[in-house]
Amino acid sequence: MTTSDRGRDAPGRDQLAAAVTQLTAELAALRRDLARRHLLDLASGVLVAQLSLTPADAVDHLAQLAETTGIAPEDLAADIVNGASGTAGLSPLAMAADLGEAVADDDEDAAAAAAAAADKTADVDVDEAADIDVHQERTDARRARLTEAAAEAAAQTGGTVDEVAETLLDGGLRPLGVRGLWLFRRTETDCLELAGRAGVSPLEAAHWRWVPPGTHSPLHRVLTEAAPAWLPSGPGDGERLPGPAPDAARAVLPLRQRGAVTGLALADWPGPRELDEPVQRALMGLAVPAARILDAGGADPAEPAVLATLLDQLTHPAMSLRADPETGALHVEHLNRPALDSAGRTHGTAGRPLAQVFPAVSADLAQLARAARESAAPRREARLPVVHRPGDPDPLHDVRVLPVGPGRTVVLWHGATDPLMSLTRVLGRLENLAAFEDDLIAGTSRWSEQAYRIFGLDPAAPAVQLRRLAPQLHRDETDKLHDLLTELTERRNGAHTVVRVVREDGGLRHVRIAAEPLLTGGVLTGITGVYQDVSAQHHTEIALSATYDRLTAAQTQAALRHQLVVQLQQAIVPEVPVLQRLHGLEVAARYRPAAEEYRVGGDWYDVLPLPGGRVLVAVGDIAGHGIDSVTGMVALRNALRGLAFTGHSPARLMSLLNEVTLHTHGHPTATAVCALYDPAERSLCWASAGHLPPLLLRDERARFLDPPRNILLGAVPSAEYAQRVTPLAPGDTLMLYTDGLVERRHTGLDESLAGLRRAAEGLGRGGLDERTDRLLASVTGDTDDDTSLVVVRVS
Question: Is the bond preceding residue 378 a cis peptide, omega within 30 degrees?
């Protein structure tokens, strides 16, 4: 995109930014209004039930009572609801009696009754200590009820579980001294999954993302006994719970929904604390909305804990972004404190769309993040938004976007223009330079000593501002200077150009000018940059242009050749195939390309259903790299697909494939495993041509299958191949792979295979796709070779 293109898009982007900002504010106001209406509706329902009023009369009576007593409608509604539930310090019957008097037909009696009700629901007698305790109890109950309503409103408007947990912590628990709130969801296997948190660092959360059953922890005791655990000095010896210190107070509460315990809430304090009755009552009250929210909301995606902790240590703004796997829209995972300040926020950004947090630059950041992920390389921009107009907010400077994993990027930037940073950025692109800085407010300029030599001026003479440099230039170069100044002062963009300078001694110099605008509070206050004498390079560049053109043509041909190889390989061996279910088998396959682009290899795999219900599973590896390996791989893979339909056994298929290899262009050699699974017999008939042994995982114990002693493909003609038959049982998992998965330069093959076996036994529970990804992540060779992995599980 050109500068002019971005300039044309700027008005639309600004309108979108303003709309996002307005909608975000409207959402916050909507949540406040929903919380208020939720409380008022509950209180009106209590009046309808206890005083036999119509819904309309209940609403009018509540408004009249609030006006008469001078109590805020929300506080009065909280008192009524708490009174009905027996937690407000006033019994439901007494509350109903007082309110019944307030609806008398006589206005004077109604006012008096309302005042009496107000005395019992809000006022305190400062002369009596007992009344002070009642008042504090009622205040705590109000706060808990208002917090519950705010949490319900956040959940109804699409808030994440983390956002709702933050609402519960700030509104109801932090006044009690609580440091952090943890919300665990109970899975079907009684595993506890961390679904939401507040007041807890990402690194802490990562350690407690999953709590498996059978650990005999206090968490699972509460889950089993369905009763709260109050731990004023932390868990017992040898037991661990989330929290800042072993002796810090904790409270673990079961969360019930529809009569069953669906999860747990854990509150922790900074240190030991007495958990008296008021604290226990407040926590039990907030467990009700927590249970409903946990039941309705999905688990929030795990944050990269170490990455978030690292970003928190930086002194300049930084944030991590996550791309939605379906829509590609960017969401904010984490902002460090300087980034929160830059966004004008204090908390509540995790999980929000990027357009809500940084509306003015979200489109530009999304484009940079996409380019960084696609190229697997960092992307930079001197400033975002690129086009800056007077009155706009300060832009982000020196923006760097780094890909850090699938769908995740990190963004680093500076919040204000730093002249030294701008000059350093310019100097990094040029050599043998003379620096200058123009002060547009004072109308002065500063030159380094080299600048006077470039222009042939006396060092005692005053430095010349860039906008007054035209007399020093050739008359045909004034338009270039004008265009440069327009880019700097009107469009506020960094720019450079090359002009001819006529010196007083008659000499002619070709001078490159590279400059950046300096902004303070959104106002252009100066220009900084460099001058570079490129006269000697000018003629050399002309002489080299023809050679450069020839080299460019050669590089283009090489790039096209490499692109053809990569596209051909990816067309045959996709990187992440979808999970397949074929005739009693679940099949997951993965392909991991070589670490270096030029090492495009010949790894391949195939999973093919055959007539009669049998399934072909094959893995192979062509020796070498490059176009010859890829074309050989295509030939063998397609040949085996055709031969498999003949109904021959794996041993015979290997013999035929050996003859195909001998007659393939380039005379490649290859290793391979060819297996036929029979669902009726639940047996695997297989043959290996010099390939690494398959790994069988049964009842969480792994062993390598002993392969027949067969020669590799393409070595000798008319080779005969032996085969094996391996019975399989439901739940068995078989792994076929190429050597790029396990081979390491300084490790023997036996040791590498033992590491693969241990990794397979440690995969744990989960779906086949999940376990396949964990195996590929935990076992990595270092020979820069590509890897194919096929994992099949008997249904």
Answer: no
Give the pLDDT confidence of 550-600 residue by residue, as tens digits: 666 656 666 666 566 556 555 555 554 556 778 789 999 888 776 555 456
CA torsion, ordered 63, 64, 65, 68, to nearest 10 deg: 120
Other C-beta atoms closer than 10 Å to the C-beta of 17 total: 20
pLDDT in tens, 659-710: 999 988 878 899 999 999 999 899 999 999 999 999 999 999 999 999 998 9
Q: What tokens appear for 623 in the block?
A: 């020796």
List % helix, strand, coil for the chain (3-state, nearest 5). 45, 25, 30
- Residues contacting 375, CB < 8 A, separation 6+: none
Residue 119 clears pLDDT 80, i.e. is over it? no
Q: Are 747 and 790 in contact (CB under 8 A)?
A: no
Token code pair at residue 574: 């996709």
Q: Is 176 helix (H, G, I), strand (E, B) or coil?
A: helix
Instruction: Tokens for 149, please give them.
Output: 């309503």
- Asked whether the beta carbons of 242 and 231 are under 8 A apart, the reply is no
pLDDT recorded at residue 667: 85
User: What tokens does 283 get?
Assistant: 């926590």
Q: For the chain, what is the radius of gyration of the CA atoms?
A: 36
Task: Yes or no: say if 416 and 550 are a contact pair by the CB < 8 Å rule.
Answer: no
Show Cβ contacts of residue 5 under 8 Å, excluding neighbours closer than 6 positions: none
Cα(62)–Cα(99) distance, rounded to whole angstroms?
Answer: 9
**CA pair distance 299, 423, nearest whole angstrom:** 47
Instruction: Give the bridge partners for 733, in sequence order.
Output: 697, 793
Quote the percentage of the chain above a pLDDT of 70. 70
- Cβ-count burial of 25 within 10 angstroms (0-12 exposed, 13-18 middle, 19+ buried)? exposed
**Phi, psi (degrees; rounded to nearest 5) at 330:** -90, 135
**Alpha-carbon distances of 300 from 183, 193, 194, 209, 635, rounded to whole Å:** 11, 10, 9, 11, 46
pLDDT at 423: 58
In 3-state terms, what secondary structure has residue 431? Answer: coil
User: Is the four-CA dihedral 358, 195, 264, 42 of positive or negative sign?
Assistant: positive
Query: Rounded to the nearest 10 degrees, what angle do helices 749-761 and 768-778 cross at?
Result: 140
- Residue 327 pLDDT > 80: yes
* Separation of alpha carbons 349 and 24, rounded Å: 12
Question: In whole angstroms, how far apart are CA 378 and each of 83, 399, 784?
Answer: 60, 10, 22
Confidence of residue 407 (pLDDT cuts 50, 70, 90): confident
In whole angstroms, give the CA distance from residue 740 to residue 630. 16
Report, as an integer, the average pLDDT of 79-86.
64
Q: What is the pLDDT of residue 346?
A: 53
Residue 697 is which amino acid? L
Location of structure tokens 């249904």: 795
> What is the DSSP secondary-structure string of 460-502?
TSPPPPGGG-GGGB-GGGHHHHHHHHHHHHTS---EEEEEEEE
Q: How confident is the model at residue 387 (pLDDT cuts 50, 70, 90)?
A: confident
Q: How far apart are the first and last CA of the chain?
A: 52
Kindly report the number of other CB atoms within 10 A of residue 752's CB atom: 17
Three-state DSSP at 254 gives: strand
Where residue 181 falls (left for φ over 0; alpha for ψ -120 to 50; beta otherwise) is beta
pLDDT at 527 over 90: yes
Residue 35: closest CA among 160, 174, 181, 157:
157
Average pLDDT, the chain: 78
Looking at the whole model, is its pTM more than 0.70?
Answer: no
Buried b (16+ CB within 10 A) or exposed e, 556-577: eeeeeeeeebeebbeebbeeee
